[in-house]
Amino acid sequence: MASLLLASTARTAAASSSRRLVASSSSALESLPLLLSALPPLSNILPPLPSSSRSISSRNPNFSKGLTKVQRKRGQMKKRLNLEKHALLERVREETKPDPVLGYRPGNTREVGTNNEDLWENCELKKIIISNQDVWGLREDSRGNLQPVESELTKGTEEERAVAASQGGPLRLNFNLSDEDRKLLFQDLPDVNTKDRLTVSMAFSDAGSGTHAGSMVADEINQHLEGIERQEGHSVDKLSRMLDLRNASSKGIDVYNKRRIVEQFGQGIHTGTVETQVAIMTYRLHRLHELLSTPTFRKDEASRRSMAILTHKRAKLLKYLKKNDTDRYVSLLSRVGINRRAVEGEIVVPGRPKLITL
Protein backbone atom coordinates (compact mmCIF):
# COMPACT_ATOMS: atom_id res chain seq x y z
CA MET A 1 0.00 0.00 0.00
CA ALA A 2 2.81 2.37 0.84
CA SER A 3 4.57 1.66 -2.47
CA LEU A 4 1.46 2.62 -4.37
CA LEU A 5 1.29 5.92 -2.49
CA LEU A 6 4.97 6.68 -3.30
CA ALA A 7 4.45 5.91 -7.01
CA SER A 8 1.40 8.15 -7.30
CA THR A 9 3.24 10.95 -5.49
CA ALA A 10 6.19 10.69 -7.92
CA ARG A 11 3.90 10.78 -10.94
CA THR A 12 2.15 13.88 -9.58
CA ALA A 13 5.49 15.67 -9.00
CA ALA A 14 6.75 14.79 -12.50
CA ALA A 15 3.56 16.05 -14.14
CA SER A 16 3.75 19.34 -12.29
CA SER A 17 7.42 19.87 -13.22
CA SER A 18 6.68 19.14 -16.90
CA ARG A 19 3.83 21.67 -16.87
CA ARG A 20 6.18 24.33 -15.37
CA LEU A 21 8.87 23.56 -18.07
CA VAL A 22 6.35 23.89 -20.90
CA ALA A 23 5.04 27.12 -19.47
CA SER A 24 8.55 28.58 -19.14
CA SER A 25 9.52 27.54 -22.69
CA SER A 26 6.34 29.03 -24.15
CA SER A 27 6.98 32.29 -22.32
CA ALA A 28 10.57 32.31 -23.66
CA LEU A 29 9.34 31.81 -27.23
CA GLU A 30 6.84 34.60 -26.80
CA SER A 31 9.61 36.98 -25.58
CA LEU A 32 12.14 35.98 -28.37
CA PRO A 33 10.94 38.60 -30.94
CA LEU A 34 11.33 41.32 -28.35
CA LEU A 35 14.91 40.20 -27.63
CA LEU A 36 15.82 40.09 -31.32
CA SER A 37 14.40 43.54 -31.97
CA ALA A 38 16.47 44.93 -29.08
CA LEU A 39 19.77 43.65 -30.61
CA PRO A 40 21.83 46.06 -32.92
CA PRO A 41 22.06 45.26 -36.68
CA LEU A 42 24.74 42.78 -37.77
CA SER A 43 26.35 45.32 -40.16
CA ASN A 44 27.40 47.38 -37.12
CA ILE A 45 28.90 44.38 -35.35
CA LEU A 46 30.58 42.32 -38.11
CA PRO A 47 33.30 43.82 -40.44
CA PRO A 48 32.50 44.10 -44.16
CA LEU A 49 33.28 41.10 -46.32
CA PRO A 50 36.41 41.27 -48.53
CA SER A 51 36.04 41.96 -52.26
CA SER A 52 37.13 38.44 -53.17
CA SER A 53 34.23 36.96 -51.17
CA ARG A 54 31.59 39.07 -52.88
CA SER A 55 29.17 37.33 -55.15
CA ILE A 56 30.09 36.92 -58.81
CA SER A 57 26.78 38.40 -59.87
CA SER A 58 27.68 41.73 -58.20
CA ARG A 59 30.89 42.00 -60.29
CA ASN A 60 29.47 40.78 -63.56
CA PRO A 61 25.84 41.83 -64.13
CA ASN A 62 25.64 39.60 -67.21
CA PHE A 63 26.51 36.54 -65.19
CA SER A 64 23.06 36.27 -63.67
CA LYS A 65 21.56 36.37 -67.15
CA GLY A 66 24.03 33.78 -68.49
CA LEU A 67 26.15 33.79 -71.64
CA THR A 68 25.02 32.21 -74.83
CA LYS A 69 27.14 29.79 -76.80
CA VAL A 70 27.81 32.41 -79.50
CA GLN A 71 29.03 34.92 -76.91
CA ARG A 72 31.37 32.43 -75.33
CA LYS A 73 32.77 31.44 -78.72
CA ARG A 74 33.23 35.10 -79.64
CA GLY A 75 35.18 35.75 -76.45
CA GLN A 76 37.42 32.77 -77.07
CA MET A 77 38.11 33.92 -80.63
CA LYS A 78 38.94 37.45 -79.42
CA LYS A 79 41.35 36.08 -76.84
CA ARG A 80 43.05 33.85 -79.40
CA LEU A 81 43.44 36.77 -81.84
CA ASN A 82 44.99 38.94 -79.14
CA LEU A 83 47.48 36.22 -78.26
CA GLU A 84 48.41 35.75 -81.92
CA LYS A 85 48.82 39.51 -82.32
CA HIS A 86 51.17 39.75 -79.33
CA ALA A 87 53.16 36.76 -80.57
CA LEU A 88 53.49 38.35 -84.02
CA LEU A 89 54.63 41.67 -82.55
CA GLU A 90 57.20 39.89 -80.41
CA ARG A 91 58.47 37.98 -83.42
CA VAL A 92 58.80 41.19 -85.47
CA ARG A 93 60.55 42.88 -82.56
CA GLU A 94 63.08 40.08 -82.33
CA GLU A 95 63.62 39.98 -86.09
CA THR A 96 64.26 43.74 -86.23
CA LYS A 97 66.24 44.06 -83.01
CA PRO A 98 69.37 46.09 -83.83
CA ASP A 99 72.87 44.92 -83.07
CA PRO A 100 74.04 46.63 -79.83
CA VAL A 101 77.58 47.02 -81.21
CA LEU A 102 76.84 48.34 -84.70
CA GLY A 103 73.70 50.25 -83.70
CA TYR A 104 71.60 48.76 -86.51
CA ARG A 105 70.52 45.36 -87.79
CA PRO A 106 72.45 44.20 -90.87
CA GLY A 107 70.25 42.81 -93.61
CA ASN A 108 67.03 44.23 -92.15
CA THR A 109 64.38 44.61 -94.85
CA ARG A 110 61.52 45.77 -92.63
CA GLU A 111 63.02 49.08 -91.49
CA VAL A 112 65.01 50.30 -94.47
CA GLY A 113 66.85 53.54 -93.73
CA THR A 114 66.18 53.48 -89.99
CA ASN A 115 67.52 50.11 -88.82
CA ASN A 116 69.76 48.70 -91.53
CA GLU A 117 73.04 49.47 -93.34
CA ASP A 118 71.60 52.64 -94.86
CA LEU A 119 71.40 54.20 -91.40
CA TRP A 120 75.19 53.85 -91.07
CA GLU A 121 76.10 54.65 -94.66
CA ASN A 122 74.16 57.94 -94.65
CA CYS A 123 75.24 59.19 -91.23
CA GLU A 124 77.70 62.02 -90.62
CA LEU A 125 80.29 59.86 -88.89
CA LYS A 126 80.65 57.43 -91.77
CA LYS A 127 81.31 60.24 -94.23
CA ILE A 128 84.33 61.64 -92.37
CA ILE A 129 86.23 58.45 -91.46
CA ILE A 130 88.40 56.58 -93.91
CA SER A 131 89.42 52.94 -93.87
CA ASN A 132 92.85 51.44 -94.36
CA GLN A 133 91.93 50.10 -97.80
CA ASP A 134 90.83 53.55 -98.96
CA VAL A 135 94.09 55.12 -97.77
CA TRP A 136 96.46 52.51 -99.15
CA GLY A 137 94.44 51.71 -102.25
CA LEU A 138 95.10 48.02 -101.65
CA ARG A 139 93.06 45.11 -100.35
CA GLU A 140 94.22 41.71 -99.15
CA ASP A 141 92.32 38.81 -100.64
CA SER A 142 91.65 35.41 -99.07
CA ARG A 143 95.04 34.10 -100.26
CA GLY A 144 96.98 37.00 -98.76
CA ASN A 145 97.70 38.74 -102.06
CA LEU A 146 97.31 42.52 -102.35
CA GLN A 147 94.77 43.70 -104.89
CA PRO A 148 94.38 47.35 -106.00
CA VAL A 149 91.21 49.10 -104.86
CA GLU A 150 89.75 52.22 -106.43
CA SER A 151 87.11 54.24 -104.61
CA GLU A 152 86.03 57.81 -104.20
CA LEU A 153 87.79 58.08 -100.85
CA THR A 154 91.04 56.84 -102.38
CA LYS A 155 91.03 59.76 -104.80
CA GLY A 156 89.99 62.16 -102.04
CA THR A 157 87.18 64.67 -101.81
CA GLU A 158 87.03 67.82 -103.91
CA GLU A 159 88.01 69.91 -100.91
CA GLU A 160 91.09 67.77 -100.17
CA ARG A 161 92.20 67.86 -103.82
CA ALA A 162 91.74 71.63 -103.94
CA VAL A 163 93.80 72.16 -100.76
CA ALA A 164 96.58 69.87 -102.00
CA ALA A 165 96.70 71.67 -105.36
CA SER A 166 96.78 75.18 -103.87
CA GLN A 167 99.13 74.61 -100.91
CA GLY A 168 101.15 71.66 -102.16
CA GLY A 169 101.98 68.41 -100.47
CA PRO A 170 100.20 65.03 -100.47
CA LEU A 171 96.48 64.48 -100.53
CA ARG A 172 96.40 63.63 -96.82
CA LEU A 173 99.04 64.38 -94.20
CA ASN A 174 100.38 61.89 -91.69
CA PHE A 175 101.64 62.45 -88.12
CA ASN A 176 98.56 64.48 -87.16
CA LEU A 177 99.66 67.48 -89.25
CA SER A 178 97.07 70.16 -89.97
CA ASP A 179 96.47 72.48 -92.93
CA GLU A 180 98.49 75.20 -91.19
CA ASP A 181 101.43 72.81 -91.05
CA ARG A 182 100.91 72.04 -94.73
CA LYS A 183 101.14 75.72 -95.67
CA LEU A 184 104.23 76.15 -93.52
CA LEU A 185 106.05 73.09 -94.90
CA PHE A 186 105.17 73.29 -98.58
CA GLN A 187 104.84 77.04 -99.19
CA ASP A 188 106.58 79.17 -96.61
CA LEU A 189 109.58 76.93 -95.95
CA PRO A 190 110.63 76.51 -99.65
CA ASP A 191 110.36 80.28 -100.24
CA VAL A 192 112.47 81.05 -97.17
CA ASN A 193 115.12 78.48 -98.16
CA THR A 194 115.27 79.82 -101.72
CA LYS A 195 115.78 83.40 -100.58
CA ASP A 196 118.40 82.43 -97.97
CA ARG A 197 120.41 80.32 -100.42
CA LEU A 198 120.28 83.05 -103.07
CA THR A 199 121.41 85.66 -100.55
CA VAL A 200 124.26 83.47 -99.36
CA SER A 201 125.39 82.76 -102.95
CA MET A 202 125.41 86.46 -103.78
CA ALA A 203 127.37 87.21 -100.63
CA PHE A 204 130.00 84.60 -101.46
CA SER A 205 130.21 85.91 -105.03
CA ASP A 206 130.76 89.47 -103.81
CA ALA A 207 133.40 88.34 -101.33
CA GLY A 208 135.28 86.38 -104.00
CA SER A 209 135.28 89.23 -106.54
CA GLY A 210 136.30 91.87 -104.05
CA THR A 211 133.44 94.20 -104.88
CA HIS A 212 130.50 95.16 -102.73
CA ALA A 213 127.68 94.70 -105.26
CA GLY A 214 126.88 94.12 -108.86
CA SER A 215 129.38 91.31 -109.40
CA MET A 216 126.56 88.91 -110.47
CA VAL A 217 124.65 90.02 -113.51
CA ALA A 218 120.90 89.49 -113.88
CA ASP A 219 121.27 86.45 -116.10
CA GLU A 220 123.50 84.67 -113.62
CA ILE A 221 121.12 85.50 -110.78
CA ASN A 222 118.17 84.11 -112.72
CA GLN A 223 120.03 80.94 -113.63
CA HIS A 224 121.16 80.46 -110.05
CA LEU A 225 117.61 81.09 -108.80
CA GLU A 226 116.19 78.51 -111.19
CA GLY A 227 118.71 75.95 -109.97
CA ILE A 228 117.82 76.64 -106.35
CA GLU A 229 114.10 76.35 -107.09
CA ARG A 230 114.63 73.00 -108.85
CA GLN A 231 116.51 71.69 -105.83
CA GLU A 232 113.81 72.96 -103.48
CA GLY A 233 111.19 71.32 -105.69
CA HIS A 234 112.94 67.96 -105.35
CA SER A 235 113.14 68.47 -101.59
CA VAL A 236 109.42 69.25 -101.47
CA ASP A 237 108.63 66.07 -103.42
CA LYS A 238 110.70 63.98 -101.04
CA LEU A 239 109.06 65.60 -98.00
CA SER A 240 105.63 65.08 -99.55
CA ARG A 241 106.24 61.35 -99.99
CA MET A 242 107.53 61.07 -96.42
CA LEU A 243 104.51 62.84 -94.91
CA ASP A 244 101.92 61.11 -97.08
CA LEU A 245 99.25 59.23 -95.13
CA ARG A 246 99.65 56.29 -97.50
CA ASN A 247 102.95 55.54 -95.76
CA ALA A 248 101.25 55.46 -92.36
CA SER A 249 100.50 52.33 -90.38
CA SER A 250 97.08 51.29 -89.18
CA LYS A 251 97.70 53.22 -85.95
CA GLY A 252 98.53 56.36 -87.92
CA ILE A 253 95.28 56.10 -89.88
CA ASP A 254 93.42 55.63 -86.59
CA VAL A 255 94.92 58.85 -85.21
CA TYR A 256 93.99 60.65 -88.43
CA ASN A 257 90.35 59.54 -88.17
CA LYS A 258 90.10 60.53 -84.50
CA ARG A 259 91.43 63.99 -85.29
CA ARG A 260 88.77 64.40 -87.99
CA ILE A 261 86.09 63.24 -85.53
CA VAL A 262 87.19 65.83 -82.97
CA GLU A 263 87.11 68.54 -85.64
CA GLN A 264 83.60 67.54 -86.74
CA PHE A 265 81.91 66.74 -83.41
CA GLY A 266 83.96 68.84 -80.99
CA GLN A 267 84.84 71.90 -83.11
CA GLY A 268 88.48 70.83 -83.00
CA ILE A 269 89.05 71.57 -79.30
CA HIS A 270 86.26 69.96 -77.25
CA THR A 271 87.46 66.38 -76.84
CA GLY A 272 85.46 65.61 -73.69
CA THR A 273 81.93 66.34 -74.84
CA VAL A 274 79.40 63.52 -75.03
CA GLU A 275 79.08 63.92 -78.80
CA THR A 276 82.83 63.54 -79.35
CA GLN A 277 83.20 60.60 -76.97
CA VAL A 278 80.21 58.72 -78.42
CA ALA A 279 81.46 59.29 -81.97
CA ILE A 280 84.95 58.00 -81.11
CA MET A 281 83.50 54.98 -79.29
CA THR A 282 81.26 54.18 -82.25
CA TYR A 283 84.23 54.39 -84.61
CA ARG A 284 86.28 52.07 -82.38
CA LEU A 285 83.39 49.60 -82.08
CA HIS A 286 83.05 49.39 -85.85
CA ARG A 287 86.77 48.68 -86.19
CA LEU A 288 86.64 45.98 -83.49
CA HIS A 289 83.57 44.38 -85.02
CA GLU A 290 85.24 44.30 -88.42
CA LEU A 291 88.37 42.77 -86.90
CA LEU A 292 86.52 40.09 -84.92
CA SER A 293 84.39 39.14 -87.92
CA THR A 294 87.42 37.81 -89.77
CA PRO A 295 88.33 34.11 -89.31
CA THR A 296 91.86 35.04 -88.21
CA PHE A 297 90.78 37.03 -85.13
CA ARG A 298 87.53 35.18 -84.45
CA LYS A 299 88.88 33.68 -81.19
CA ASP A 300 90.36 36.92 -79.83
CA GLU A 301 88.42 36.91 -76.57
CA ALA A 302 90.36 39.85 -75.09
CA SER A 303 89.28 42.14 -77.92
CA ARG A 304 85.73 40.77 -77.70
CA ARG A 305 85.60 41.61 -73.99
CA SER A 306 86.93 45.12 -74.71
CA MET A 307 84.19 45.51 -77.32
CA ALA A 308 81.51 44.55 -74.77
CA ILE A 309 82.87 47.00 -72.18
CA LEU A 310 83.02 49.80 -74.74
CA THR A 311 79.44 49.07 -75.83
CA HIS A 312 78.12 49.51 -72.28
CA LYS A 313 80.18 52.68 -71.76
CA ARG A 314 78.62 54.19 -74.87
CA ALA A 315 75.14 53.24 -73.65
CA LYS A 316 75.78 54.93 -70.29
CA LEU A 317 76.90 58.15 -71.96
CA LEU A 318 73.83 58.17 -74.19
CA LYS A 319 71.59 57.48 -71.20
CA TYR A 320 73.12 60.46 -69.40
CA LEU A 321 72.59 62.67 -72.45
CA LYS A 322 68.99 61.51 -72.83
CA LYS A 323 68.28 62.37 -69.21
CA ASN A 324 69.69 65.90 -69.51
CA ASP A 325 68.95 66.94 -73.10
CA THR A 326 66.58 64.87 -75.23
CA ASP A 327 67.04 66.97 -78.38
CA ARG A 328 70.82 66.51 -78.36
CA TYR A 329 70.29 62.79 -77.72
CA VAL A 330 68.04 62.29 -80.74
CA SER A 331 70.29 64.42 -82.96
CA LEU A 332 73.43 62.53 -81.90
CA LEU A 333 71.88 59.13 -82.66
CA SER A 334 71.20 60.15 -86.24
CA ARG A 335 74.69 61.69 -86.63
CA VAL A 336 76.50 58.52 -85.59
CA GLY A 337 74.07 56.07 -87.24
CA ILE A 338 72.56 54.33 -84.19
CA ASN A 339 69.01 53.10 -83.75
CA ARG A 340 67.72 54.03 -80.31
CA ARG A 341 66.59 50.46 -79.58
CA ALA A 342 70.27 49.42 -79.70
CA VAL A 343 71.21 51.54 -76.68
CA GLU A 344 68.00 51.53 -74.62
CA GLY A 345 66.86 48.79 -72.28
CA GLU A 346 68.82 45.61 -71.69
CA ILE A 347 72.00 45.35 -73.76
CA VAL A 348 73.30 41.88 -74.57
CA VAL A 349 76.49 41.79 -76.63
CA PRO A 350 76.56 38.71 -78.90
CA GLY A 351 79.32 36.17 -78.43
CA ARG A 352 81.62 34.50 -80.88
CA PRO A 353 79.95 33.99 -84.26
CA LYS A 354 79.74 30.48 -85.62
CA LEU A 355 81.52 29.54 -88.81
CA ILE A 356 79.32 28.22 -91.59
CA THR A 357 80.88 25.20 -93.24
CA LEU A 358 79.78 24.50 -96.80
TrEMBL record:
Low complexity bias spans: 50-61
UniProt entry tagged with the keyword Ribonucleoprotein: yes
Record GO biological process: translation
Stretch forming the signal peptide: none
CDD domains referenced in this protein's UniProt entry, alphabetically: Ribosomal_S15p_S13e
InterPro entries: Ribosomal_uS15, Ribosomal_uS15_bac-type, uS15_NS1_RNA-bd_sf
Stretches for region Disordered: 50-76
Top-rank taxon, per record: Eukaryota
Gene3D superfamilies listed in its UniProt record: S15/NS1, RNA-binding
One Gene Ontology cellular component: ribonucleoprotein complex
Keywords: Ribonucleoprotein, Ribosomal protein
SUPFAM superfamilies associated with the record: S15/NS1 RNA-binding domain (SSF47060)
GO terms of molecular function: structural constituent of ribosome
Family label: Belongs to the universal ribosomal protein uS15 family.
Protein's recorded name: S15/NS1 RNA-binding domain-containing protein
